[in-house]
Design goal:
Length: about 800
């Protein structure tokens, strides 16, 4: 009997140990996770920073000092560039290790390894875009550049040095929830991170949707709904700029294009991704110094997409924000220059129809010849299931993303992806030069090495110069080349040469004494190259330029105020017309009250106001009902953008698309406005009935800073902030200013301010987690301590940490 009991309880114990240490669906292994010594309790921190003052690390050459200021920004002082980037990798991993890794799993198409079959389709898509392969090609190019490769390697070694200090109890809580462990970091992964940014910022296109719509609507109707340019645009470079060079030319085939239809397209970058940057000369500022401002508008996530840092070595003194996982500073300033970025809307990704010789897909037709393909078998590990395999065919254009195995239509659809992000490049050189920049020539030198994702790169210096370059690698295109699916069987549709870098759009110290960009058209029609994008911005840029034209004696706080500007240009240009279209004689008390509210509105989407709620809801419902025909299309399509919709609304009262599907009468624009005015009021009333908070714009919009795992307890909801997409303060529900920075380029000492919606720490158990969200929402900035005097930093430091070489 004793033997039986012993065996019985031993088996029970073993079963419990196995069960409690195994992940079950979305439930982490409870035995480990709830362990009071090493489970999630160990992630609770009672102080802002908990780190040893002295630490010995393998890989360092000399001691490195880190001064952590009150905002947990590390000021890293090293005796060599190697130690500087090693310490930077170690420091950022200390706060953001899980984020650094998780975003790379997504880019490489490996999420299924940790999340299971839920993300299998996304992984397949990422691999069919060729992101991991282009990162490998980039790494080979980087290896040819000793200084850059050593920078990436030192940073990776620093990350790995941090990983080496961890055991289970030290792991970020997300590893415990998902039950996996960090992998070694490497220069390849840093290249992969840059490809992730290319995926977010330059892979957007609408070639296949455009092709579908030409097939369905005809070319004339398509051009009517989707013109390349609308009247009234305000380009990045001063309108009327003379371009004094002889452009390259490519032949226009001037014949028909393939009109194969596509029901479903791959996911695209969020169209709300965008940014603002601007700089003014000393002639417009109170101090006489150049002022520069930048804010990239991206997804609002926790941990934040940015990390603030100050890097100092004998060759570097730079501060600003950087993507966790990338060395150096991405947006920032030195003691002489400042630099920032907005996404340059430009079509650098095209699709080509491919004809294979037979089902083996070993060859494809090109100018009457059969060219060999390359087959890559992707092995996708899926947690809890068998490994999945996917064969991706590569042509000289790039990977055949659409085919019989992925979003294709049997053998009818084989589309290859041609994208500048697939080309080899060494874009890290730009940041290497910028981080050491002293003058405009250093800025130019950095630009020469940068191919993408294309960016509008603003510049200012202590010498009084400002500049803007639209920098990237742009193919020379004939009109409408790449706007639609192209026939990959013929070289006449293939890309030719690239625009010489010095012919990229730019301006230095323009007569208007400011430069600015906000994702709009880069130049007017005088630029001698064909320029196209399906998704230019039309409102933020004009508001910024309107303000900068009249602003004088500008102070840094004025630049901050402009970054936080809530003026709704869409409402300013359209609301009066919309209200004038309503029949006030038929209004009841409720509609008349809202009508009067909108009449008196000053067009500012301030967080406490009610009028923006009614306008935004009305516009959204009007837009949806006007273009309801697009919702019934059986193929992939998109709708005309807001600016062109407003042009059509005001100039085409009998627009055919105004006729509402499902009704027997023929509606006009005026009818659609009347219908949606009433229905939008009903929607707002419904919202009021379902919420216990006051009806205000901030409450209605519900801006949310969401944790990457979409866990509500780790997210911040109901952020009290105004603005919206299309407004300078572009804080919509899930997108917005991800880093705001203002710099004053004073020779006596550069001053700067910055803030982002998050915190330096990525640990939800830290008391400072998300502590910058409220300052960010209310337009407040951190004063960035930028000095070479270590004694000053030490005097104000929360913690002074020394990283020592383990062999000394």
């Amino acid at each position: 009997m004793k033997v039986f009991k012993f065996v019985f309880f031993t088996i029970i114990t073993i079963v419990l140990v196995v069960v409690l240490n195994s992940k079950n669906g979305n439930i982490p292994p409870l035995g480990k996770f709830l362990n009071p010594m090493s489970g999630f309790w160990a992630n609770s921190e009672y102080t802002a920073i908990k780190a040893p003052e002295q630490l010995a690390l393998d890989g360092l050459e000399e001691p490195v000092k880190i001064y952590w200021d009150k905002d947990l920004i590390p000021h890293i002082f090293a005796e060599s560039d190697h130690d500087l980037y090693f310490a930077e990798g170690y420091t950022i991993a200390f706060h953001r290790l899980w984020q650094m890794e998780f975003q790379l799993y997504k880019t490489a198409g490996r999420l299924s390894e940790i999340l299971g079959p839920l993300t299998l389709s996304l992984d397949q898509q990422q691999r069919r875009k060729g992101l991991a392969y282009s990162a490998s090609w980039m790494l080979e190019e980087v290896k040819k550049d000793k200084a850059i490769y050593e920078m990436l390697q030192a940073y990776s070694d620093g990350v790995n040095a941090y990983i080496a200090t961890l055991d289970y109890k030290d792991l970020p809580i997300e590893y415990k929830l998902l039950d996996y462990e960090p992998e070694p970091f490497s220069p390849y992964k840093i290249c992969l991170l840059l490809k992730e940014m290319s995926d977010q910022l330059s892979s957007g296109e609408a070639d296949l949707e455009n092709t579908n719509m030409v097939r369905l609507l005809g070319k004339d109707t398509f051009n009517f709904l989707f013109p390349d340019r609308d009247p009234g645009i305000d380009p990045i470079i001063t309108a009327g700029t003379k371009f004094d060079f002889e452009p390259l030319r490519v032949a226009n085939p001037n014949d028909s294009l393939p009109l194969t239809k596509v029901k479903q397209v791959i996911s695209k970058p969020d169209p709300k991704n965008g940014s603002n940057n601007f700089a003014v000369t000393g002639s417009k500022t109170a101090s006489g110094h150049v002022l520069l401002a930048n804010e990239p508008d991206l997804g609002l996530n926790l941990p934040s997409i940015w990390y603030a840092a100050h890097l100092h070595s004998p060759s570097v003194n730079v501060m600003g924000a950087v993507f966790p996982g990338s060395p150096g500073i991405t947006i920032g300033f030195t003691d002489s220059i400042a630099f920032g970025f907005t996404n340059a809307k430009r079509d650098v990704a095209d699709w080509f129809y491919i004809q294979f010789r037979n089902d083996d897909r070993d060859e494809y037709l090109y100018d009457g010849k059969w060219l060999k393909t390359q087959k890559v078998i992707e092995e996708i590990t899926v947690r809890g299931e068998d490994t999945k395999y996917d064969t991706v065919i590569y042509t000289h254009f790039g990977p055949v993303t659409y085919d019989r195995n992925f979003k294709g239509n049997g053998e009818q659809v084989n589309f290859a992806f041609r994208w500048t992000a697939h080309d080899t490049s060494n874009d890290f050189r730009l940041f290497y030069h910028f981080n050491r920049g002293k003058n405009y020539n250093d800025y130019l030198e950095g630009l020469k090495h940068y191919s993408g994702p294309p960016q509008n790169i603003v510049y200012g210096d202590v010498h009084g110069n400002i500049a803007m370059w639209v920098q990237g690698k742009f193919p020379v295109k004939y009109p409408e080349q790449g706007k639609f699916l192209m026939d990959g069987r013929y070289s006449k549709y293939d890309w030719g040469p690239f625009i010489p870098q010095q012919q990229n759009i730019h301006e230095l110290n323009p007569a208007r004494n400011f430069v600015s960009s906000a994702n709009q058209h880069p130049a007017d029609a005088t630029y001698p190259y064909y320029v196209y994008d399906y998704n230019y911005e039309h409102y933020r840029n004009r508001r910024i330029n309107d303000r900068l034209k009249i602003m004088q004696n500008i102070k840094p706080e004025d630049m901050m105020k402009l970054q936080n500007d809530n003026y709704n240009y869409l409402a300013y240009e359209n609301l009066t017309f919309m209200l004038d279209s309503l029949d006030t004689g038929k209004m009841v008390a409720r509609t008349r009250e809202v009508y009067q509210l909108l009449r008196k509105w000053d067009y500012f989407n301030d967080p406490e106001k009610v009028a923006p709620v009614y306008f935004e809801e009305w516009w959204d419902q009007f837009y949806a009902l006007l273009w309801d025909e697009f919702d019934t299309m059986s193929v992939a399509a998109y709708k005309p953008h807001n600016y062109h919709t407003s042009v059509l609304m005001k100039n085409n009262p009998d627009l055919a698309f105004a006729d509402v599907l499902g009704t027997s009468r023929k509606e006009t624009i005026k009818d659609v406005l009347s219908i949606t005015f009433v229905s939008s009021l009903d929607s707002v009333e419904s919202w009021k009935g379902n919420h216990s908070v006051d009806l205000t714009w901030a409450n209605f919009k519900n801006t949310t800073i969401q944790h990457l795992m979409r866990l509500e307890p780790f997210s911040v909801t109901d952020v009290q902030i105004g603005g919206n997409h299309g407004i300078v303060n572009a804080a919509s529900r899930r997108h917005g200013p991800s880093w705001r920075m203002v710099v004053e380029l004073d020779k006596a000492g550069v001053k700067a301010w910055g803030v982002y919606p998050g915190s330096q720490t990525g640990n939800p158990g830290n008391p400072t987690y998300a502590d910058m969200v409220t300052p960010w929402a209310t337009g407040k900035y951190l004063s960035l301590q930028f000095t070479s005097q270590q004694a000053d930093l030490a005097a104000n430091a929360t913690l002074v940490q020394t990283l020592n070489p383990s062999n000394k």
